[in-house]
Amino acid sequence: MSENCFHCGQNIEKERISFDEKVFCCTGCQSVYEILNLNNLENFYAMNKSSGIRPDDSTHEFDYLDTAEIFNRVTDFSEGNTTVVTFKIPVIHCSSCIWLLESLSTLNPHIRFSQVNFTRKTLQVSFSHQELKLSELAKFLAKLGYKPVINLETADKKSENLDKTLLIKLAIAGFAFGNGMFFSFPEYANEILGLNDYWMDRYKNLFRFIMFLLATPVVFYSASDYFRSALFGLRNKIINIDVPIVLGIIVLYGRSIYEVVTDYGPGYFDTLCGLLFFMLLGKIFQKRTYSALSYDRDYKSFYPIAVTKVDFNGKQENILLSELSVGDRIMVRNQEIIPVDGILISGEGNIDNSFITGESSTVPKKAGDKIFAGGKQTGSVLELEVIKNVDQSYLTQLWNKEAFKKHETGLDTLTNKISKYFTIIIIGITIAAGIYWSTVDFEKMFQVVSAILIVACPCALALSAPFTLGHIMRILGRNKFYVKDTLTIEKLAKIQTIVFDKTGTITHNKRSDVHYEGKEIEEFDFQIIKSLLKNSNHPLSKALYEFIETEDRYYPAEDFNDIPGKGYSAKVRGVKYKIGSGSYNGQVSRNHETAVYISRNEEFLGRFIFKNEYRSGLKQLFSNLNEYKIHILSGDNSSEEKNLRITIPRATGMAFNQDPESKLNYIKTLQDKGEKVAMLGDGLNDAGALKQSDVGIAVADDTNSFTPSSDVIMNGQKVVELNKYLSLTKDAMTIVKFTFAISFAYNVVGLSIAVLGYMSPLVAAILMPISSITVVAFTSAATWLRSRKYFSI
Question: What is the DSSP-derived secondary structure letter of residue 404?
């Protein structure tokens, strides 16, 4: 009696190791089991029994990874003591693999975090390279059974193209189908015309044998992915959608061999080859469809953000990221994400790489140091020289990191559940139909069973949600509403309450009436104040920067200190300046005014008083949002409350003098009441509230408001059209439900015809990809028509 290894589930053929009342096939599997138990990760086996991978002991090949040139090419990011690397690991196959690989920090203290991309079979790891060499990390993974594949292709990190082996399998199936039809034609013609041709009768066994030879590689090579997927599912006690397909292939192939051996008939070899040809054709179509829905898209169509370019004379110009080139100089302000790799020219760099590494510590930088894209400056303004073209796909990858996703998708879970029970139901129908037809027409039973198993594949069902939401995502992006992922579209459709930050969201960033009250300020002080205003992305700072008419010069700032919601201070040429609220400058703010207060060496100079200019069209916007509860938050005082009450007469709540923590708590209070909340803010002082909300929408006019706290980046000019975007997301969910209905209708009709015996397996194989094409065509047309209702596309 054969035994299976407790860890990997494979048959124990040679070495049998007993440990802890369990048996293992090798010392590697035993070692992995011990490691998991020592680190309290025995739940790995509870999730999927015998789902481990047999470890690979040939790990000496990874020593070359520590060579500086190879290290730099393979790793994504390396700075200080932190390195981020992405490995290709093809053996990742189930939920246990994901769970174990994302628990690496528990197994090894030098690993900070790890994240699996199951679709691409990749693992991203952040680790301390001074304590754990890259080669040691690769060996560690190999000893766990997850040996990384490292070659030129994976090192180049190119986007994945269609798998060439799939095209080869399709070509083999197509060749066998075409030639099989050719060799079977004489026998079919002989039977249809009622002829008794001597030559056909003499050579029919040769033709049948040739068809067997053609079909065999199709079954065992072209269909291998279906067998592998079904086997993995069954090993892990999961009946996936490939199980009925494999059963149908086995039934047809076995029945065909039986007919040829007993000289009963020609079998179904030609039909079987055609079946797999059309199924693989559908699979290629589906892979291309999913590939089109990968969201590492070109940055030109993804972000409504610009960057401040400076020339050698200090002149500033806001330009699109797409216009940046190597050698350009850019300005990065406090709390801005650095969009490109660059060399620090001037300023005190204090880079927060938590966006890349997951760690909150900052790294100091001095002139001449390299700074990676994705870092965030926390301090005074920096001037960088661009050394690489914009690689926004990498920032997109960072923005889409699981660490910044707050919820699991409901629709995907629903789709998976439906597919799971759907498969069980189909197998039940197949058994019932097989029993019935075996008593009525035993020969036809094989055709009926095969047709049922093939036509009922729920591929169209699985394709419905991602393709519809992917279409909507691109349409929203073309209209300057940049959604992080399709899950966000689902969440937007469920929103009940919308919270608006006032400054910079429903007001313009730059257009304000400003006047000054206070002591006379000398021209030199004005120049320094204007230079300091460059350090901040706050809407009032930007408005004041535009208002002050003096020579635009840059003065290096020292000891920069920013207190969110209060203001910031810095020393310029030994003199300390403070810019911010009244309380931050030791003054009592007036109740009915919005102002920026200025101090020099703790001496109050004066204040710049603002009268905000609201975006045009706000009254119509809030009228169109009548089905939502509206709340307004502001860090300013209540001076604008009267105007806001006129603009938004049905506002549910308003709160003023809100610091970042107060905004976050306000959102949490609404959620505690069971409300689904969307928050619109500028992405700076609102970062906490944006992250806390069910959907965080960062509003950007012409600055780099790229933030991991937001789910959406929205062009500021489009705020007054928010109702259109929300309506389109609701329409998207309606379209998804319609596609579900189409998928079910197709399966009900197809199954009915197949059960009654009126459908051949070949026709079923043709209908299977047609159902997917129908869903794609419907979603394309439906999303286009619904989008035209709101936007010009």
Answer: G
Q: Is pLDDT larger for residue 35 or for residue 412?
A: 35
CB 92 within 8 A of CB 53: no
Angle between helices 486-493 and 722-755 (to 10 degrees): 100
Q: Can you tell me the distance from the alpha carbon of 412 to that of 489, in angstroms, rounded to the nearest whole number?
A: 13
* 211, 245 contact by CB (below 8 A): no
| Distance in angstroms (rounded) separating the CA atoms of residues 676 and 297 | 29
Percent residues over pLDDT 90 in the chain: 9
Cβ contact 573:555 at 8 Å: yes
Distance, C-alpha 496 to centroid of its chain: 25
The domains of the chain, with CATH numbers, are 1-55 (no CATH), 60-156 (3.30.70.100), 164-294+409-467+740-783 (no CATH), 300-404 (2.70.150.10), 474-505+615-727 (3.40.50.1000), 508-613 (3.40.1110.10)
pLDDT at residue 676 is higher than 90: yes
- pLDDT in the model for residue 492: 93
Pairing verdict, β 329-332 and 306-310: antiparallel
CA–CA distance, 474 with 467 (Å, rounded to integer): 11
Helix (H) / strand (E) element for 371: namely strand 370-371
Q: Which long-range CB contacts under 8 A does 769-773 form with residues at least 24 apart?
A: 769/278, 769/279, 769/281, 769/282, 769/285, 769/286, 769/459, 771/459, 771/460, 771/743, 771/746, 772/282, 772/285, 772/286, 772/289, 772/459, 772/460, 772/463, 773/285
- Per residue in 438-458, pLDDT tens? 888 887 887 788 778 777 765
Instruction: Name the more confident of 412 and 672.
Output: 672
Q: Look at the chain and count its residues.
A: 793
Share of the chain above pLDDT 70, in %: 74
